[in-house]
Amino acid sequence: MKQIDGGVTAASGFLAAGAAAGIKYHDKTRKDMALVYSKVPAKVAGTFTTNVVKAAPVKRDIHIIKTEETIQAVVINSGIANTCTSKEGELLNEEMAGYTAKQLNLPIEKVLTASTGVIGCQLPIDRVKLGIEKLVPLLEDTKEAGKMAAESIITTDTYKKECAVELEIEGKRVVIGGMAKGSGMIHPNMATMISIVTTDCNISKEMLQKAASADIEDSFHMISVDRDTSTNDTFLLLANGMAENSYIDEEGTAFKAFCEGLRLVTKTLAKLMAQDGEGATKLLEVEVVHAGTKEEAKVLAKSVITSNLVKTAVFGSDANWGRILCALGYAGIEFNPETIELYIQGDGKSLKLYENGMATGYSEKEATEILSANKVHVMADMKMGKEKATAWGCDLSYDYVKINGDYRS
């Protein structure tokens, strides 16, 4: 298995496009609609926000995935979330799907939708339709087309997020590629994200859903920017079978290989989202090792990345290890603070901050240099067992408040 250049168009038979439809109220020239299309029907799986408040496209997609074996297209808009828009919003979402289906000569139930942006605004359906009319002729299977789609779904993101891998399954080349958006309102239980992952793997819908549901536990569920879980979180996984590998309909070597490839794609996308947190200057990676159970390791790691005091200390390059220890302590997991060890790593350097219940006598200057890296790694050795987990977040800067203070203005 190896990572390759590309995104949603990397796998055989998938086309994509991005265009400006004028939906974003503050910038009518910015690309704000994307379309992903499979030449042949693709098996579909998905996971969605756990927020009780769900966007119109989320509710429709959940229904479609439960009732349809395959789909062929996903149309996405950014700028308006189509959340808390009542029956009118649901009808407009249906119209968005229907118009896309008409342009592609597909049944409406073969088109999924996704929206991201401001909550409470109705979709400007005339602009949406014009956007769809622009998108369909632009559909291509090139890297550039995939890039355009990835750029078109972002909101406060500062860059596109793509990843693709190729692997061999029983002698056949299989490709998995994806794109994602997400920068704020990111918290475990999905995140504020739209992620579309495509693959040419020949796999059953049941196994595809099994892979998707298991995968997010170590990828999209392990990131946080601001402790807010969005209303529009959508992860869609499409498989069109064009790699022509032997049909995967049960667990085994082939399924394991597919899951490993999927994990590389989603973990990469997850880390890109954490690193691009609104106003962020650093990626914060927290690894918990030698925990008693896998779940305990996850809880402890996520407790540290979600601590505002830890995040601000990382922003200021301040080795305030007491904040890390405190975040571990209120996670709800029993441990002995006298035996654990804390380390920080960055730019190839490592430093132990805490052991035997007290500071190690480390150099504050050296600690500041390590914490000034673009990627800061914190490791907590719990001395309790053999399990481990890693979570990803970011620092908390002044710009986070600026961005969210005038998000609608």
Automatic annotation (TrEMBL):
<keyword id="KW-0963">Cytoplasm</keyword>
<dbReference type="GO" id="GO:0005737">
    <property type="term" value="C:cytoplasm"/>
</dbReference>
<feature type="binding site">
    <location>
        <position position="409"/>
    </location>
    <ligand>
        <name>substrate</name>
    </ligand>
</feature>
<comment type="subunit">
    <text>Heterotetramer of two alpha and two beta chains.</text>
</comment>
<feature type="site" description="Involved in the stabilization of negative charge on the oxyanion by the formation of the oxyanion hole">
    <location>
        <position position="116"/>
    </location>
</feature>
<comment type="function">
    <text>Catalyzes two activities which are involved in the cyclic version of arginine biosynthesis: the synthesis of N-acetylglutamate from glutamate and acetyl-CoA as the acetyl donor, and of ornithine by transacetylation between N(2)-acetylornithine and glutamate.</text>
</comment>
<feature type="active site" description="Nucleophile">
    <location>
        <position position="192"/>
    </location>
</feature>
<dbReference type="InterPro" id="IPR002813">
    <property type="entry name" value="Arg_biosynth_ArgJ"/>
</dbReference>
<dbReference type="GO" id="GO:0004358">
    <property type="term" value="F:L-glutamate N-acetyltransferase activity, acting on acetyl-L-ornithine as donor"/>
</dbReference>
<keyword id="KW-0808">Transferase</keyword>
<dbReference type="GO" id="GO:0006526">
    <property type="term" value="P:L-arginine biosynthetic process"/>
</dbReference>
<feature type="binding site">
    <location>
        <position position="181"/>
    </location>
    <ligand>
        <name>substrate</name>
    </ligand>
</feature>
<feature type="binding site">
    <location>
        <position position="278"/>
    </location>
    <ligand>
        <name>substrate</name>
    </ligand>
</feature>
<keyword id="KW-0028">Amino-acid biosynthesis</keyword>
<dbReference type="GO" id="GO:0004042">
    <property type="term" value="F:L-glutamate N-acetyltransferase activity"/>
</dbReference>
<protein>
    <recommendedName>
        <fullName>Arginine biosynthesis bifunctional protein ArgJ</fullName>
        <ecNumber>2.3.1.35</ecNumber>
        <ecNumber>2.3.1.1</ecNumber>
    </recommendedName>
</protein>
<keyword id="KW-0068">Autocatalytic cleavage</keyword>
<comment type="similarity">
    <text>Belongs to the ArgJ family.</text>
</comment>
<keyword id="KW-0511">Multifunctional enzyme</keyword>
<dbReference type="GO" id="GO:0006592">
    <property type="term" value="P:ornithine biosynthetic process"/>
</dbReference>
<feature type="binding site">
    <location>
        <position position="192"/>
    </location>
    <ligand>
        <name>substrate</name>
    </ligand>
</feature>
<dbReference type="InterPro" id="IPR042195">
    <property type="entry name" value="ArgJ_beta_C"/>
</dbReference>
<feature type="site" description="Involved in the stabilization of negative charge on the oxyanion by the formation of the oxyanion hole">
    <location>
        <position position="117"/>
    </location>
</feature>
<feature type="binding site">
    <location>
        <position position="155"/>
    </location>
    <ligand>
        <name>substrate</name>
    </ligand>
</feature>
<feature type="binding site">
    <location>
        <position position="404"/>
    </location>
    <ligand>
        <name>substrate</name>
    </ligand>
</feature>
<keyword id="KW-0012">Acyltransferase</keyword>
<feature type="site" description="Cleavage; by autolysis">
    <location>
        <begin position="191"/>
        <end position="192"/>
    </location>
</feature>
<comment type="pathway">
    <text>Amino-acid biosynthesis; L-arginine biosynthesis; L-ornithine and N-acetyl-L-glutamate from L-glutamate and N(2)-acetyl-L-ornithine (cyclic): step 1/1.</text>
</comment>
<comment type="pathway">
    <text>Amino-acid biosynthesis; L-arginine biosynthesis; N(2)-acetyl-L-ornithine from L-glutamate: step 1/4.</text>
</comment>
<dbReference type="Pfam" id="PF01960">
    <property type="entry name" value="ArgJ"/>
</dbReference>
<keyword id="KW-0055">Arginine biosynthesis</keyword>
<dbReference type="InterPro" id="IPR016117">
    <property type="entry name" value="ArgJ-like_dom_sf"/>
</dbReference>
